[in-house]
Amino acid sequence: MSNYRERAAALVAQMTLEEKVGQTLYNAPAVERLGIPAYNWWNEALHGVARAGTATVFPQAIGVAATFDEDLTEKMAEIIGEEARAKYNAQKEAGDRDIYKGLTFWAPNVNIFRDPRWGRGQETYGEDPYLTSRMGVRFVEGLQEEKDGFMKAAACAKHFAVHSGPEKLRHCFDATASRQDMYETYLPAFKACVQEAKVEAVMGAYNRTNGEPCCGSRTLLLDILRKEWGFTGHVVSDCWAIKDFHENHKITKTPVESAAMAMNNGCDVNCGCMFPYLLDAVRGGYVEEERLDEAVTNLMECRMKLGMFEESGTVPFDAIGYEQVDTAENRAVNLEIARKSLVLLKNEGNLLPLDLDKINTIGIIGPNADSRKALVGNYEGTASRYVTVLEGIEDYAGDKARVLYSEGCHLFEDRTSGLAMANDRISEVKAVCAASDVVVAVLGLDSAIEGEEGDAGNEFASGDKLDLQFPGLQPEVLRAAYESNKPVILVSMTGSAMAFNWEDSHIPAIVQAWYPGAQGGRAVAELLFGAYSPEGKLPVTFYRTTEELPEFTDYSMKGRTYRYMEREALYPFGFGLSYTSFALSDVTLSGDKITAGGEIKVSARIKNTGVMAGGETVQVYVKAPAGNAGSGERESRDVQEDGNMQGSRKDDSTAADGSASRHVPNYQLKGLKKAYLQPGEERDVEITLNARAFALYNEEADLMLDKGVYTVYVGMQQPDKRSAALTGREIVCLTVSAEKTEKL
Predict the structure, then answer these.
(1) Helix 328-341 vs helix 70-93: angle between axes, to the nearest 10 degrees?
(2) Residue 136: which residues within 8 A CB-CB, separation 6 or more?
């Protein structure tokens, strides 16, 4: 088979200017004389093939992140790719080339969930660059599975690069970030997707970053993406983002200037309506035709990798039939992911798991208890069957227990019926609780109010959250359940962190269920009744209040996420309880010195010391020495050693010499390994840390391995006082030293 690049360039050389411009549109028309069929580049597959009919609907991305399971993420993406091909083959056979019918999927979203108020954070893999990188890479590798030189489907890392709300400002906002924050927080997952996973596409963001519109940013798209990282795929704009250049950002004055700016700075295909103006831009000398040729060559090369110009039946993926969509095997994997995504946050007195032999009546209350919408989050497909939490509990309980149900209240309005008085279901809630032996309150949000501007409603903040409380009457419904003096279990279905201060003080058991997919209700029911042991970990910090956070519009990482926060979390990143117990022993390092070209192997033995089979995540964190990379002699937080979450960290806004300075992370996740063990079983695990795991970026974005002593924390949680208090487990602390400062 000839080189795709050469074939693509030869094809482009035969096109007229009008034909080339047409191919840069997301809904590219056919060029029949050259055998190029029409193609719509716009397709979605965030957690299953979306918006194109029936498909396996997996848990939302934030729930997938909570599994802390790279292998399972790749397996999910492989299934998505298989179903994508099956649907594409059927649609192609029928001549259907509509939107959402192609093979170029605008997923994964590897933005950093830096602020819990952001409505689209549910689409991400959480707040940590390392976890996001690992999940993103494995998703891309699974989706882009190759066979005989062809790619099954094409992934797209979005939104490049500094993008995480507020939604209502995204068309005009300038996200200002230091070079240190760019390279240490906002860019690593994109870099990993590009250099490790060879992601086929990258999508720009709506906002500006440091003054440049992201979809026309020379810094992002040319200097970093193409030149620094060596990206060879194609760049797509976010939808209608290029017209923001002149309409909202006011960087350009006309559509022609906006189209030229995007094309000249590396954007190849426009989701929107600006690239038809490239005809005038090229004819007027604003864009060289050679640059247009390059863009179209990038696009044709992608389509060739996907086998779109081959004779039917000659591409190995052509044999995938529609019967591969929504199979029993795929639904089984979906249920497995849902189970592993659920995070047990509290289990006072071992209330969970429930014993059906000791329960006669189960009360189920809350607006999300029987909600299909709360199962799936946004960018979703259509499942052949949905199992809500109510249905899951009813199915599991069968004839062993009576199930009573009340919606309790509307998700956010003050009544469930337009003609009723406010709080029209509270009497029913009280009746259900009074008649029940145990109460399951299923509260939260859904994608109608938490999500993307334009998709989510505008009742609150264009999809963002104003605060971290359950909206509407939900808190009152939960209090009514508590005041019934019956055991209450809170199941929270949200795509983001909530502030469970009252709940943590009053409710004995709390489960964070995210948006757990079409099988989610079954997974929740099985967890409540002990069919398996929970193993999910928080991919985001659960704060106590938004008041401790910087302004939503502040993109500095100082004071944000577990890596830089200064106060104690309510529920920390990396935390999650289990029904069984695990112990680490024989924790060792392969050496105590690290150099620029070296690596350290972390070895440990993990044992299931409990009575149930279960999974656990070994987590390795690294803390750099104070004064890293010329940042001044400051202490960074070490709660394991000083026991004071708030007190050990000095102001890092100024270096020792009085110059402007950087912020040093408290510590950072740098390795993880999942282990699944039967009771009494033990296993050795090994995690490799290379020099980059120890190094930090300085203010100039140089990656520096500084001379000094580094702390390596090995455990099943992050090394903070709150996690130790919640789990009753300590972290193993070891040290590694670098004898000289080196630039990596």
Answers:
(1) 140
(2) 108, 110, 125, 157, 189, 192, 193, 197
Of residues 430, 414, 417, 363, the one with CA closest to residue 390: 363
**Interacting residues of 547 by C-beta distance below 8 A, sequence separation 6+:** none
| Residue 179 DSSP symbol | H
* pLDDT tens sequence across 679-697: 999 999 999 999 999 999 9
Q: Which residue, chain included where needed, has tokens 């039967």? A: 678
**DSSP states of 351-403:** -PSP-GGG-SEEEEESTTTT-SHHHH-SS--B-S----HHHHHHHHHTTSSEE
CA angle, 159 as apex, 231 and 454 as ends, to 5°? 150
Report residue 325 as tokens.
Answer: 């969509």
Output the six-digit token pair for 549: 């956070």
Phi then psi for 546, rounded to 5 degrees?
A: -75, -15
52 Cα distance to chain centroid: 22
Torsion of CA 69, 73, 74, 75, to 10 degrees: 100
Is residue 59 within 8 Å of 341, Cβ to Cβ? Answer: yes
CA-wise closest residue to 86 among 327, 323, 328, 381: 323
What is the CATH number assigned to the segment(s) 582-743? 2.60.40.10
pLDDT exceeding 70 applies to what percent of the chain?
95
Angle at 96 between CA 94 and CA 97, to 5 degrees: 145
Here the tokens at position 47 are: 């957690």
Catalytically annotated residues: 238, 450
CB atoms < 10 A from the CB of 517, how many?
31
- Strand (E) or helix (H) holding 711: strand 708-715
- Where do you find CATH 2.60.40.10 in the chain? 582-743
Q: How many CB atoms lie within 10 A of CB 149?
A: 11
| pLDDT tens for each residue of 53-109 | 999 999 999 999 999 999 999 999 999 999 999 999 999 999 999 999 999 999 999
Rounded CA-CA distance 384/13 in Å is: 46
> What architecture (CATH level 2) is domain 337-564?
3-Layer(aba) Sandwich (3.40)
Q: What is the pLDDT of residue 661?
A: 55
Pairing of strands 742-743, 703-705: antiparallel
* CA separation for the pair 284, 278 (Å, rounded): 9
Report the candidate in 631, 637, 619 with the shortest Cα–Cα distance to residue 567.
Answer: 637
Q: Report pLDDT for 662.
A: 66
Radius of gyration of the chain (CA): 26
Tokens at residue 168, please? 């209502």
Give the type of residue at 84.
A
CATH code of the domain occupying 1-37+157-305: 3.20.20.300
- The span from the CA of 410 to the CA of 473, in Å, is 7
